[in-house]
Amino acid sequence: MENPGKFxxxxxxxxxxxxxxxxxxxVVAEKYGDKGFQEAGGELNLTFVGSAGQSxxxxxxxxxxxxxNGQSNDYVGKSMCGGNLIIKPDDRFPVESHKNTIIGNTCxxxxxxxxxxxxxxxxxxxxxxxxxxxxxxxGAGDHCCEYMTGGRVVVLGKxxxxxxxxxxxxxxxxxxxxxxxxxxxxxxxxxxxxxxxxASQELYNILS
Length: 208
Fold this sequence. Notes:
By secondary structure, the chain is α/β, with parallel strands linked by helices. Helices cover about 15% and strands about 30% of the residues. It has 4 helices and 8 strands. It has helices at about 20-30, 35-40, 180-185, 195-205, and strands at about 5-15, 45-50, 65-70, 80-90, 115-120, 130-135, 150-155, 170-175. It is globular and about 55 Å long.
C-alpha cells in the first residue's frame, strides 16, 4: 500500500466467504481514490480456488485482476467499477462449461466499469442496472440486461425470457443459434443483426 507495485496471491475460498474483494477495494480506494493506485503502478493479482459465497468481486476497482477457479453464488461483481474478473471451472471439472451455470443470480448488479469473463452460464437477471461494465458469459437466464443503461454484455449461448426489460442504454450481443431468440426479448428493445464494421470490430475487440 505504501509503495504500489505488483502483488500476487492464491487463496482458497469457501461458500461462507461473502463479499470477497470488497474490503480490499475499500482500503485501496480510501488511500488512493478510484484510479490512483493503478496510476501509481499498483496491481493486485488475486487467484481464488473453490466455491465463493455471495457478492464475490463486489466493488472491484481498477488495478485488480481477480480469477476464481471454481464457481460462485449470487451477486458476482456487484457495483464493480473497474478491474478484470475471470471465473472458470476448476481444471478437474469434467463437463463442458457452456452447459452449466457457474455464477448465480443478479450478477454485476449496478456495475459501472471493469471487465468480466465467465466460462459458463449465468443465472437470472444478469447485468441488472449495468451502466459501464463489459461482461462475457456462455449463457444467461431470464431478465438478462434488465434496466441496463450502459456497458456491453456478450452472451455466447442461450438466454431466458424477457431480455432487456427496461433497458435504456448499452448494447447486448447475443449468439443466436436458433430462430426463437426474438421471442425471448422484451418488446421494447430493438433487435438487429450485426451489419456494420463498427459493431463487428467492437465485438471482436471484446472477445480477443
